[in-house]
Amino acid sequence: MYYNSKYFKKAELSSSGRPVQLGETDILIQDGVGLYQGNYKLITHQDGRVYLSDKRLVYVHNSHITKPGESPNLALDLLDVDSIEYYAGFLKSSPKITLHMNKLKSHVTNVILQDVSWACPICYFANELPKAQVGKIVSAPGNASNFPKCRTCGVPAPAELILRLIETSVSKPHESHTVTGKGFQCDKCTFLNHPSMTNCEMCGHLLKEHPGVEDQGVNLQIEESTDFDEFTIKISFHKSGSKIFFDKLESAVEMAKWNKLTESDRINRGVINDEPPSVPQLGIHGLQAVTMKKNLESSNLLNDSIQDLENLMSKAKQLIGLSETYQSLLMSSRSQTSKIDDNLKILKESKTTIKILDSIITTNEISQAQKDKSKSNYLWSLRKPSVTDVNRSGYSELYIDELARQIYEFIMNENLLDRSSVVSMYELYSMYNTARGLSLVSPLELYDAVKKFETLRFNVRMFEIPLVSVNLSDLTSLSPAKKTESRNDGKMYVISRSDFSSSSTANRLLEIINTLDGVSVLGLQNHPGLSMNFMILSSMVTQLCMDGKVCVDIRLEGAFFYKNEILEFEWD
Amino acid sequence: MDNKPPFTYPALYDFPPFFTKQPNSQTWQSQLSNWVKLLLAYCKHNRIWILSPDGTPLTATSNDDDSDNEEFVPSTESIFNNEKIQRSIKPDMSLEILNTMVSQGKAKWKDPKNHKMGIYIYWYSLEAWADMIYDWIENTGQQNSVLTIYEIRKGELGHNQEFHNMDMDMFISVLELMVKKGQAQLIRDEDGSIAGIKVV
């Protein structure tokens, strides 16, 4: 049976299979989770993992379903949660967390409440009706005490006027994304993608879902039943960790509500409104008080802006001074006098500018680092070894999966594979850990995580490249029998796109060598399109040489590679 | 013979990797056979009978009775060293090439225990030499007459022949082969050294 749920929204996933974060921080992630509506299972949502962030609860399929329209990944807004209950489980029934949803939501779905201004029909004073009060009126339109009175003349507002105003303010159409023709336009590169794509075909940027779909809730498949409870959602835990999840969820729901309040300034607003104003609000005095308050506000605003302007002016003056010194330098470049003086001046000026820039950069870096830190923090909580599924590095499967997703995102965000087609594990390891800064991952963890790339179906994979670590100059002076013995069949792990194959790269390498007349590995590395790790490149070239595809010339400067002219040479 | 054109090297001789032993065995075999061909052609062109292991031509040795080698000034140029592209073969590689030639019967160490004595390069095999001398004697009607070694090697009649001025020791091995085949008889003087041959 299908039904439409107002609470669940489609959750967008990044290409690594993690939910796209909309200005939120992850708190916890739990594996082996199923969803219930009321007492009935959501058939298609029985095997997934749940991400708890400070704003949402996101269910993601474990099986990585990518087909559009087919049982979407779900997100639940924490603000819609009224209360939660914990059920510890009994015999065969798993522990569950019951979420009682806010009933208000189902009547006024997706209404974005806004402040409404109304004009008093008696004195034409423009009154402001705050959001909170709008909400009250909407929830109980029959209650006359909710309707406002004019702040100047005290006449109550006519009910039908207020209701009409609210209706128009609420039903304002939501600004939609650019959807042209049949495809989705990528936000980043404006490429028109096929509607079934989740990521942009050109740049890999995540595509926004069809905006029209967003607000309608989702159709879900539920076990055959007629009387399910629309307001109760249960999360069933097939694995351990439900208690911790419950605690975190509880605090997250509370925090989300608190944050919402602080964000919309409702706390302070409440305080002001509760205090009985000493000045009477009616008549001439009221008018005076209102104007005074307005004056005060505008003067505050003006003060702020003047301060900003002054700051700007001082910066501008500095810049002008700097440009003048440059100018004078340019003018006097012919006459050598006082040049050193000018240079010194400019140096001094530049120093301050650089300092300013520096501070900007550092603050930027700090905020970036904070973000990374919060990311790694919650990941850390998963690190506890579990007895059931222990990996090579001794950590739970879930941790490794999640780490893999993060590393994948890291690779994508840093465009590692754009700069060079192949990244060695050593490089990835050091770069990733540098980005983390704190609580570093061990090589084994990284190895396990990267190995997961294939099962998680990312378009990046780990490859083993046979590493030919033989010294060519040794090789050329040895007899053939010895040569095979001394061959070291080492391996090197590299990360590359899934379509990478060492043979095709080797072929390209061969083509390049064939066009050049003698080239060293360093020279090859400088060749555009071949910017990759020196070790990998040299190993590949050596392999080519061992296979007789190219010839080597050992000089004092090192080994140089040539097209194999020896083999095809015909004596005339 | 003095105004002979200089030896034209194959294009491969100017290819730098030709002077480095290639790690791939197939390439190396090709490289090796090209070196063997080059050495044979080079020695044939310059009429070099003995080559030193470092690639320079050696003169006839002291036991040759007529060391009045008038036409041949040994050059110090080594075939293993290409001045033009500044490349030379390492000694172990050149030794491998020469040993390969020995195993193929295209060369022979003068003294297998002392390579410095030089190596005979058979740009024709001993068989071919023997046939060539036999044919020449037959064609010039000198059968059944006794010829001295000098007559064959340095004689006016054989001036245009390829075996003219052949290395003494090599010449004797050719004669010995002819005797073995029953084409010739050796005539020795009283102290046992060969004085002449009679082709039958």
What's the helix and strand layout?
The complex is a heterodimer of chains A (572) and B (200).
Chain A: E1 2-5, E2 8-10, E3 26-37, E4 40-41, E5 48-53, E6 56-61, E7 74-77, E8 81-87, E9 96-101, H1 104-107, E10 116-119, E11 126-129, H2 131-139, H3 159-170, E12 179-180, E13 183-185, E14 192-193, H4 211-214, E15 218-221, E16 232-237, H5 242-263, H6 266-274, H7 283-331, H8 339-381, H9 397-413, H10 416-419, E17 422-424, H11 425-436, H12 443-451, E18 460-468, H13 472-477, H14 480-486, E19 489-497, H15 502-515, H16 521-526, H17 534-546, E20 550-555, E21 558-563
Antiparallel strand pairs in A: 1-15, 2-7, 3-4, 3-5, 3-16, 5-6, 6-7, 8-9, 9-16, 10-11, 12-13, 13-14, 17-19, 18-19, 20-21
Chain B: H1 25-46, E1 50-51, E2 57-58, E3 81-82, E4 87-88, H2 91-103, E5 107-109, E6 119-121, H3 126-139, E7 146-148, H4 149-154, H5 168-180, E8 184-188, E9 194-199
Antiparallel strand pairs in B: 1-2, 1-6, 3-4, 5-6, 7-9, 8-9
Helix pairs in contact in B: 3-5
Description:
The complex is a heterodimer of chains A (572) and B (200). Chain A has 572 residues and is an alpha+beta fold. Chain A folds into five domains: 152 residues, Roll (PH-domain like), CATH 2.30.29; 55 residues, SH3 type barrels, CATH 2.30.30; 94 residues; 62 residues, Orthogonal Bundle (Arc Repressor Mutant, subunit A), CATH 1.10.10; 101 residues, Winged helix-like DNA-binding domain superfamily/Winged helix DNA-binding domain (Arc Repressor Mutant, subunit A, Orthogonal Bundle), CATH 1.10.10.10. Helices cover 42% and strands 19% of the residues of chain A. Chain A is built from 17 helices and 21 strands. In chain A, the strands form six sheets. In chain A, strands 2, 3, 4, 5, 6, 7, 8, 9 and 16 form a nine-stranded antiparallel beta sheet that branches. In chain A, strands 12-13-14 form a three-stranded antiparallel beta sheet, with no helix packed on it. A three-stranded antiparallel beta sheet of chain A has the order 17-19-18. The longest helix of chain A is centred in the middle third of the chain and has 49 residues. Chain B has two domains: 111 residues, "Winged helix" DNA-binding domain. Chain C. Domain 1 (Arc Repressor Mutant, subunit A, Orthogonal Bundle), CATH 1.10.10.570; 74 residues, Orthogonal Bundle (Arc Repressor Mutant, subunit A). In chain B, strands 2-1-6-5 form a four-stranded antiparallel beta sheet. Chain B has a three-stranded antiparallel beta sheet with strand order 7-9-8. A two-stranded antiparallel ribbon of chain B has the order 3-4. Chain B is elongated and about 55 Å long. The longest helix of chain B is centred in the first third of the chain and has 22 residues. Chain B starts with 24 loop residues before the first helix and ends with a strand. Chain B contains five helices and nine strands, in the order αββββαββαβααββ. Classes of the chains: A alpha+beta (572), B alpha+beta (200).
